Amino acid sequence: MVSIHKWPFCPMTVFSSAKNAHVRPVHCAFSPPCALPSNKIAYFWMDTGYARPLLLVEADSMKPFFKLKSRKELQDIIDKFPSLPGEAVPVEAALNRVLCQDILSPEDLPPFPRSTMDGFAVRASDTFGASESQPALFDVIGEVAMGTSPEGLSLKPGQAARIWTGGELPDGADAVVMVEYTEAIDSRTIEVSRSVSPLENVIERGEDVSSGNKVLEAGRLLRPQELGLLAGLGVTSVEVHRRPNVAVISTGDELVPAQTTPPRGKIRDINSTTLCAQIRAAGGIPVPMGIVQDSRHGLVEACVKALEKAADVVLVSGGSSVGQRDFTIEAFRAVEGADILAHGVSVRPGKPTILARTGDRALFGLPGHVASAMVVFYLFVYPLIRKFQGFSQPHHLSLRRINARITRNYPSRPGREEYLRVRLTQNQGEWHAEPVFGKSGLIFPLVEADGLLVIHRDSEGLYQGDSAEVLLLP
Ligand code: AMP
Ligand code: MG
Fold first, then answer.
1. Boundary of a domain, candidates 361, 391, 421
2. Residue 5, domain extent
3. Residue 70 needs a FRET pair 20 to 30 A away by CA distance; which of 77, 364, 404, 454 works?
4. Ligand 1: which atom is nearest the Cα of residue 352?
5. Rounded CA separation 188/169 (Å)
């Protein structure tokens, strides 16, 4: 059924297959018009009389979203959430956490000068001029046994002490001669056939870290090496930003838990599992809340319960659009103190996305389609979970990116930023991205995909060989 509309800024008539369509012209230079993918969208070639420019018309038979936000606009809103306060955790449990305190070194590291070689501790000046033809002679006055203090040993000119890698230099010594450059003459005498300079083969006291220095600053990500530093300094507990609790609610009358055999007409809940895993991988603490039927009341109850359970973020997947069976927006409106910050974002997939805020807590309405929910999570929920944990570097706030060449022509409808699932291969040092086709309700194309190739909002598509940014799926 085709109805005819007059677009106000367009001198010609626009056709649409959808009733009550909201018609929007967009320039299009791609391929012949496709068959209608659904009753909601229509594409038409228009002849305006000027060298046959083409017009793509998008018609939407649904209630309109609130003003669509761009990805950037939504990300700017998410940026404004503050990081969570700190908590003390043992250093062994602090991997991938972000410090919220400066750490001053309580002591010198190492606390005494140490040998880096097996050999003999000496006064460097006693070795000057020593060579194979004219070795220097030393009296060996003792040995620094590993793990013991050399107290009582004090080198005078011409004296040496046996020492092992990591041993503490005795008083008077300022260098170590490697055992390879020494020869025992008798049990108390050695020849040294090479000179050493002061501090050669020695780590000085405090050379790694000096007492009182700021060694780590607030905001620092704790990697294995930072934890090692803390261990070396005897710091056993640190203040790090708290990890957010993220409640996961699935909504849909058609959903049953994954453990259940679904009767006809129902499907298993996939999103609870993918979202909980995504939350965990982002460093958050997933709090699965199960399935809620399509009802405003049930959803409000579930959201309130999640907030009572100290959720910092509530994710509701499904019901985020503007259809008759979509209640997420109404439920969020009914949560006390909640402001709706966005309903609708111009990304594909993922347009029916909702963000609300109550205090410093966020409520997300994600589309139910499995790929849409995953993509929206990576674009908007992931950065917030990371921000909450104190991450601030751009590369910690989003998925890693690479550039890749697309392996075939790919037309895209302008107006929304598109995230195309791709499989990646490497050839002669370059990445190649092969589109994985499939509707956003399918999970398997995601299983086959390595990344999401980004097609800009105004782009009409990519030609084979064009380079584009790809977000790497974890
Ligand atoms: P909705 O966003 O509620 O309109 O749902 C869009 C599509 O995603 C529908 O086909 C739903 O059945 C499906 N869907 C919604 N939630 C889930 C879920 N948790 N797991 C798998 N599919 C879902
Ligand atoms: Mg639904």
1. 391
2. 1-61
3. 404
4. 2
5. 19
